[in-house]
Amino acid sequence: MTRSFKAIVSSSEQFGLVRYFSRICGFVAVSVLLVAGGSGCSRLRPKPAAQYVYVTAKQTFLRDRVAAVSNRTATVENGDRLEVLDHGRRFVKVQTAKGEQGWIDEKVVATQDVFDQFEKLKQDHKADPVVASAVVRDEVYMHAKPGRDTERFFRLAEGEKLKLLARATLAKPLPAGTRVAKAAPASVPATATTTGSAGKGAKAVAPPVPDEPAAPVMEDWWLVRDSKGDTGWLFSRMMDVDAPDAITRYSEGQRIVGSYVLTTVNDPEAEQDDKNIPIYVTVLSPYKAGLTYDFDQVRVFTWNVKKHRYETGFRDRNIEGYLPVTVTTATDPYGKLPAATTPAPTFSYRVLSDEAGPVVADPVMGTIVPGKTVLKTYRLEGNLVRRVIQPGTTAPGEVHPEPVSEKKKGTAGKGGRGKKKR
């Protein structure tokens, strides 16, 4: 009996041990499956996309730590792309294309979104015609949009050559808290009297004039393309139109907006080293921002071979002209003289028609799109500039920034109608 009981107990203990080991093996098997499954999912899970920032400073350094005392690990320059590895409070840990790593201040880098804005600007305007050439006065940034507070990226060096594509004009932003000045009240005729007054002795009293805000200060911006093909907006005061000194002295207080070579004349006795002297057509405007036109004067500088100097061969003033100016070589389809069939330097430009409505700059982008315009074409025949127009036709009317007297109206544009400033 005792032996039977011991056998039963021994069998029970063995059975319990079997169950225990079975549970342990099952747990281990499940753990192995979970680990295997997890590692398999990690292989299938895509890696997060790399993030990049772009250097906006002219030149700066990466540092091994964010501290008052640190070591430089790399030198980066404007436009360099850096891969983001980590983010700090005001710094970003990055890696260069060479594998160099370090921390950089987030104030001197642009995000991918800013870079994409400039890329889109470049692609959208890569086929735009060049209206003029310019030179950068000092180191300056290109902006993604017109305006001082817009995103900026590419830094241009002093003397950088630019291609001008389009102009925009916007109101200068006012500092925070600035109160807008009131415009001076308009003058009132002395015949105005107070209501209800009568008789010869009544004094002339000006009626109350409502306060109006003064006109905002305007700024001009240019969409430009640099020598690398990068495109952006640049403050007009930070560049000068590329025009030769030989003709800028004759600008007569105006700003040269564009200068174009029509042809060249050989003068063996000229003082210049190059005896092939260029003949220029230039367009000029007042030194004033916010104009709704690009230029108000066209002037051709011819070369006097006897006196070895430039002279004015043609001038078209008091116009509202728009870039670009087209220069080519062509015949005169309306000319009757034999010279008309000979190709000659020809230039064309557009002016605002007197049938167009008021020109208003876009309030957001500042771009200027005129309404109806008149195309004016001229040929240089020797030192004479003649308009290419069909005989017997009346030249279309134009808008004039300054009033035109009745005497000059009849001769404006060879019979064209003049129109006073709106």
Could you characterize what this model shows?
- The chain is an alpha+beta fold.
- It is 15% helix and 36% strand.
- The protein has a 7-stranded antiparallel sheet with strand order 15-16-17-18-19-20-21. A 5-stranded antiparallel sheet has the order 6-5-4-1-7.
- A hairpin with an 8-residue loop joins strand 9 (140-143) and strand 10.
- The longest helix has 43 residues, at 2-44.
- The protein is elongated and about 110 Å long.
- The N and C termini lie far apart (129 Å).
- Mean pLDDT is 84; it is low at 5-9, 32-36, 191-198 and 413-422.
Averaging pLDDT over every residue, what do you get? 84
Name the helicity range: 10-25%
The strands making up the biggest β-sheet line up spatially as 15-16-17-18-19-20-21
First-residue to last-residue Cα separation = 129 Å
Report the sheet with the most strands, covering strand number, pairing sense and barrel closure: 7 strands, antiparallel
Strand fraction band? 35-45%
Q: Roughly how many Å is the radius of gyration? A: 37 Å
Q: What's the helix count?
A: 4
Contiguous low-pLDDT stretches (5 residues minimum) are 5-9, 32-36, 191-198, 413-422
Tell me the structural class: alpha+beta
Query: What is the count of distinct domains?
Result: 3
For the secondary structure, the number of strands is 21
Based on Cα principal axes, name the global outline: elongated
